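From the pipeline queue, job 12 of 40. The input is one protein chain; the requested action is below.

Action: predict structure.
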Amino acid sequence: MRGGLLAMTLDNRLEHLPSRSLSGAVRLYVAGDRRARARGLAGLQRLSPDHALLLAGCRSVHTIGMRFALDLLWLDAAGEVIRLDADVAPRRLHTCLRARAVIETSAGCGERFANLLPYATF
């Protein structure tokens, strides 16, 4: 594959991860292990507006290696959204000490996912 990590597509990056349907075609992929959390969405060309990535056990994320901006939905222990960081540019670091998980989605899609939650079990 030309370009290695930078040429990754959604299908070959996230297809092996567990996922859940939130509503219709909207999918939430779950990065449940350390390797999947570390890779996150870095290097992808884009992320469909109908897809997001849940990073459980996460209070801090970086956008190093990102090629597009993200919306970050920070969740508490009950799965409730406690904060939305909108339009986070590449090469940034964001932290939410009260969070127990974060959902990463394409910039502009965060509120849509927030309306489909609370995500009861993560």
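Job complete. The domain at 4-116 is CATH 2.60.120.1140 (Jelly Rolls).
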